[in-house]
Design a protein that fits this description.
- This protein is of the alpha/beta class and 281 residues long.
- It has one domain (23-276): TIM Barrel (Alpha-Beta Barrel), CATH 3.20.20.
- The chain contains seven helices and eight strands; from the N terminus they run H-E-H-E-E-E-H-E-H-E-H-E-H-E-H.
- The strands form two sheets. It has a six-stranded parallel sheet with strand order 3-2-1-8-7-6, covered by helices on one side. It has a two-stranded parallel sheet with strand order 4-5.
- Strand 4, helix 3 and strand 5 form a beta-alpha-beta unit.
Length: 281
């Protein structure tokens, strides 16, 4: 009986891993180089990325079961080697090419991005669009619309749309409506590679508690949208902005959870458990 129960529980864990593949996170190495350990221990976390083509560094001794998704962040990265212990399945394109502040955004014209795109296609992986800022995602004059027009004109390949969404007020219905508009506009599956509740002009205005509530509601919403293939919270680590770290991070520099991190674990566990139970429906 005990052996049978153990087998059943093992199958349920495998089933949860197989079907709960939407949830991810953007993360990078913390000062103690223990971010990978935190990633590997998260219930229901199926993938991560770090805005680079090489996986998060660790001194060794930790398994790498969570899928790493590489990114070609900017023009300087197009010829860099992908470094991943597991075979990469998908590739993320340029990060916010409509912006240019040197370190964090790609800063590319539509013409230059389209000219470089065949180099990304040549990797032979499922390929995500450049992820533009929210305001440059929709509309005929937006960077993304102009790029996708070039994609069609040149016969280029984009397999899914990567998008960023930052809510100033926590309105999850508005978030859902925006995602539906993106899907109608481009007709491709969507990966939400950055999302959180924050006004970047007033980064201190939103609390951990507000972001905890937004994370739970937004993740539950996206899990019920069939065209949203994956989503990743921004970000696991504290993110310095205008001299402070907004209250959006899941953990502190020592990987201790914030209220957002506790909520994140809770909702992923709940979503995964519901999916496993659904196998018996």
């Amino acid at each position: 009986m005990i052996r049978t129960l153990a087998c059943i529980l093992g199958l349920l864990v495998l089933a949860q891993s197989a079907i709960a593949q939407k949830a991810g996170v953007g993360a990078w190495e913390n000062p103690g180089k223990t971010t990978l350990e935190w990633i590997e221990k998260r219930p229901g976390l199926e993938w991560y990325y770090n805005w680079r083509p090489d996986q998060i560094w660790h001194r060794g001794g930790v398994s790498r079961t969570v899928e790493f998704v590489p990114m070609i962040h900017n023009a300087r990265d197009v010829n860099k080697r992908i470094v991943s212990s597991r075979r990469a399945k998908a590739l993320l394109g340029f990060n916010e090419p409509d912006r240019n502040n040197g370190k964090h955004q790609a800063g590319l014209s539509v013409k230059k991005a389209a000219a470089l795109w065949p180099k990304l296609e040549s990797r032979g992986l499922r390929l995500g669009s450049p992820a533009t800022t929210q305001g440059e995602t929709l509309g005929k004059g937006s960077w993304q619309h102009r790029f996708m027009t070039e994609v069609d004109r040149r016969g280029l390949r984009v397999d899914f749309m990567a998008v960023h969404y930052y809510s100033k007020n926590g309105d999850v219905a508005a978030f859902r409506n925006w995602l539906q508009a993106v899907h109608r506009s481009y007709g491709r599956p969507i990966w939400v590679t950055e999302f959180a509740m924050i006004d970047w002009n007033r980064p201190g205005a939103v609390t951990y508690q507000q972001n905890a509530r937004f994370a739970q509601q937004a993740i539950a919403m996206m899990e019920n949208l069939a065209f949203v293939e994956r989503h990743a919270w921004f970000a696991a680590n504290p993110y310095p902005w205008k001299g402070k770290s907004p209250q959006i991070n899941l953990v502190d520099r020592n990987m201790k959870p914030t209220p957002v991190g506790l909520a994140f674990d809770k909702v992923l566990t709940r979503v995964g458990s519901r999916k496993v139970a659904g196998l018996n429906d």
